[in-house]
# Entry
Amino acid sequence: MALADEQQNWPDSQPPEMEAADSPTDVELDGEEVSGAEPEPAAVKKASRNAYYKMRRFATSPRITQFPHIAKIWRAGSEDQKKDLLSQWVTTNGNASSIEATLNLRSSMSHKLDEVEELLTIKQMKQRDVSQRLSSCWFVSIVCIMRLPPRQKIDATVASQPGVPDPACPASKDDVRYWITMSVKRAKAQSTELESTISGRVDPQAAFQAMNGSGLLSALGATRIASSSGPSVADMIPGGAMAMQQFAASVSPAASLPEPPATQGLLPDVSTPAPKAKPVPKKKAKAQPGDKAELGPMGLRVEGLTLAKRMDKLRQIATWQKMEQWNDGIQGVADEVAAVRVKKAQVKATMQELKKPLPEKRACAQFDMFCTARALRQSALKEARAHQKLRAADLTFDALVTYCTLPVQDEQGMQVETQWPFLLPHTMAGALVRHGYRDVLGTCSAEYWQMQAAHGITAPGPDSIPLLLFGDEAEWNSCTYMALHWMADCADVRVQQDSRMSRYLICVIPSHVHCHEEDSNINYTLQAALQHIAQSFDCLRAECSVRAQLAGIKGDWKFLCQALNSCRTYNHNSCCLWCDATRDGAFPYTDVAETASWRSTLYLSDPWVTPPALATLGGISSILRIVHIDLMHAIHLGVGRDLVGSVLYLLVHARRGGAFRGSNIKKRFRHATTLFLSSPHSKGFPKHFLMHKDWVGMRSKKQYVECHSKAAQTGSLIQWLADFLGECTDEVAPRPLKACVWCLNAAMTVLFKARAAGQHTLTDAQARQAHEFGYTFLKLYLQLHASYRGKLTYKVFNPRPKYHLLCHLFDDLVQNRRNPARSVNFMDEDSLRKTGHIIKKCHAKTAALTVLQRYLVGLKPKMQEAFEITKNKAWRHEPPSKLEPS
# Structure
């Protein structure tokens, strides 16, 4: 109820808005005109509402009792007074003390007595009950105080003046009228004049001097308020001269001027006196009745109440429009001041450091290095002791950490050799067998090794376990690490659905310590690490407890090129590891015909100059034959992105009669997002997912359109587009476009269904079906690229080098029927992500060892869970991971 009562005092039950002017006419001030005042923007009205709500909270708080004048205007003030109070609240930035001092000064100077006389006859005086008899007293109803004798007031009034006869009957004495004082009124006419004067562009010192003296008072026509011996203006204010000084200091130039004073440098020079005000030209317009034009000592033109109103209007227009700019400027100055303080502290510390003698500097530096090394050594000792205690309590996986020599780059950029921790495959596999987790690695049939014989792989025995090696880079704690893992290719499908059960960490190496040779693309640090890992795989071939053979190498393109010392990369003319396909017309990689020239060069030349460390692996005829092409990097993060982005661009590009509704591209993208999120293929997508121009890659006309989605999201989008385009007409979506998307979705469906069924190899029918769908997609994709080339604003259907990798992938389906979906890198990337969670909790200096120790602590419960899964044959089938396409 209190809030409702307060809002009723304001017009229309809303906070007062600062109006630009009462009418569309121009506003004049001292001979200058401000014409064409524009209406206030929404930001100004919002700022006014916010200021009103802040002032209302202040007026309803217990603090309002300290400011009686503000409380009085808030409770019982008029509409204009409340508007004026709100304006002062905004311009002083909520400084209640400044507002109270201003109101207090007004109330002490604004009272003025006005006599009200009437022209009455003697009969009318008697009817108005004029006193017939006065006692001996002081008559205080008029300004001129006098002592009256004890007689009738009517007789005194008639005797003191001749009277005014009636024009219609001048001879009638009863109709003669006399002037008589009937009442006295007190008006507050001084407050507005005072406000208009103190709102000038003056500094606080000049304002105080003018107000404490007689200059301002003479300009206002109030030179003397009391007698000559009475108190001064400063004495009339509660608090004396100190209150006057506070009031003068609270007068802010920025509160009433259309432009803030310009500052030189970072902060204004307080020692420089304020500039003098320019003389104001005389007003050319006609003088209004009642105005008193007078020039004060500070060069400010004062014209009474009319000038005050105009000043208030102009101040409202200028102040509210410039308020946000002033706030930004103040914040910028504050930031610069903070920066200067920081620089000052740094300079002071540097000067103190320079004053120290040279031996003291060296001692401080050596002490800092000693403290850092001691802290790291103590941290490493604590980590090692904790790991030993967990190992003694049988709470960690018992595997031996081996130290191998690696060439690394130190902080000075020099190549040095250091001992690096490894969990080598043969030690980890031996620990798994020793703990009774042999079944977790799985078993394979003789048919599997017959299939691998086509790749030149010779197994050490029929019960050998096929292993895969994976490597990739990721960034954690502002540092890029390369992590190497190994896994069993024939492990149970239920075990492979959890990356912590099926992926085993070998080592993590920061990328900034790698030693490179840019000319030959050789990573000496990685090659030394792979040399130790290759020797470990060779030990597994001769191991008695468990026999294993490396059957595949997988990872992203960067890791494969570095692991093989390949000179053929995407940036060079030769862009394929397995053949001599090129970007130019010699062996064009976009040729998908059976008679393509690059097919005759398959496995004939090596992509390296210096043989890699993995080339020394035993049981492998050619290392290139066991390099796996990853579906995730080739399709979900490669050609699939180009396909989704190009199709969406073509569907959204149609203005009329298109697949999506909307008058512009933004609205059509929103309609496409709504249709996708309502489909069953949007499982796993966030609710705030939105398609837009930047997401599709519509940024530069020189680049191809590409969908910037994650790997799993690309698979879901391809499935949705295959279903959506099937319902569209040929006018909306051409048949080649429909067939291209449908063929890629059909080929991926065959491969991932076989993987979900646990098939290590494809059947002849599945291999031929996936091969036909895949090559049909490649031909249609190239056909669409040629048909839309140079006809659209943006480029579509990018035939990147990953397009050529799909030719080798689909050819391999028919040759050996190996399912590439079995070795897809979804779970490997998930294992890399979980390794990063451990790295984030370790110190960068000791992360290489600490990561392995913490990994072993969390591995034991996972191995026990994996053992229970493989032991229980009736264990229920878990749904696929969110990282894999549905």
